[in-house]
Amino acid sequence: MPMPDLTGTPGGRRHTDPPPFIPGLDQKNSSNAPGGSPEKNKDTIRFPTFSRKKSAVDPNVEAEEKSFAKAKAKIEDDFTIIAELVTSSDRCDKYIIYNLCDTLSEIYERPHAAITISLLYNELLLHSHTFEPSYILTITAPAQYCQAHDNDSNAIIIAAVLGQALAVSPRRGIIKFMPTHLSCLAVGGRTHLGVFVEQIQADREARAVAEQQGRGRRRSISSLRGLGRSRSRSRSRRGEGNAEREEDKDGMGDGEDKEEESGEGEDDGDGSAKPDKGKGRSMSLRSVFYRWRDSL
């Protein structure tokens, strides 16, 4: 009986399709199991794989980055906010400076010691073609503190404070935000950029000294190891030399005994044997030589 053609039917399968996944059969561990099934991920759970970084971080680069971050933090802590206020209002005294200092300290999150304010009173200050009370405030700060959205919100706060302190409407006030670079501001006779570079150079020199000391320690340890090896070698050589000397002495002693036993003097026929004086002298010289060599 011919098999019906199921290619066109909605639920039909073709001979090229993989077998269906049936739970409870041997197919649960095969490749056609669903990806989210626990049987499929059993090996993955038992043998997890860990991703490793292809490139390790160079310690020199890491130390350099830490040095830059440290120097940058130091410069940001020591950077000064400068405010110059010129006004024609009669209500100008030191309390206005104190209020403005508190406001700038809260806005820029800086200590009071890092804020410098100057106040200048000028009656002839023309604004909008009139000499009514007005003011011009110039704030010099780092570029990161003079962003567009920050300047807008800060201007609203500062205008409200000055309007209450000077009794001047915000419409008759001008606020200028002047971003400055590290090399354009000097405090204590040094620019902030110079202090920044000096801090980085000091950190580099400190790392170089520490590295040199580490190399010296490694060399000293290796030299001590080499010294111990050389001493052990010299001791072994001395032991071999002493053994050779003992063997030479034993050989010489045996030779002397043999000569004493068999080395009788020449017999003239009358039974009197004459000892060989030359042999005794040579043996005495040899014994003196070996004694001198052993004493060294």
Largest sheet: 4 strands, mixed
Percent range for helical residues? Answer: 40-55%
Number of strands: 8
State the end-to-end distance. 114 Å
Number of helices: 6
Radius of gyration: 50 Å
The computed structural class is: alpha/beta
Strand residue percentage? 5-15%
How would you sum up this structure, described in words?
The protein has a domain at 80-184: Macrophage Migration Inhibitory Factor (2-Layer Sandwich), CATH 3.30.429. Residues 26-30 and 259-273 have low confidence and may be disordered. The protein has 296 residues and is of the alpha/beta class. Strands 2-1-3-4 form a four-stranded mixed beta sheet, covered by helices on one side. Strands 5-6 form a two-stranded antiparallel ribbon. A hairpin with a 5-residue loop joins strand 7 and strand 8. The chain contains six helices and eight strands; from the N terminus they run ααβαββαβββαββα. The N and C termini lie far apart (114 Å). Helix 2 (59-78) runs antiparallel to helix 5 (192-262) and helix 3 (94-108) runs antiparallel to helix 4. The longest helix is centred in the last third of the chain and has 71 residues, at 192-262. It has helices at residues 42-46, 59-78, 94-108, 148-166, 192-262, 277-295, and strands at 81-87, 115-121, 135-142, 173-180, 186-187, 190-191, 266-267, 273-274.
How would the blueprint of this fold be written?
Blueprint: H1 42-46, H2 59-78, E1 81-87, H3 94-108, E2 115-121, E3 135-142, H4 148-166, E4 173-180, E5 186-187, E6 190-191, H5 192-262, E7 266-267, E8 273-274, H6 277-295
Parallel strand pairs: 1-2, 3-4
Antiparallel strand pairs: 1-3, 5-6, 7-8
Helix pairs in contact: 2-5, 3-4
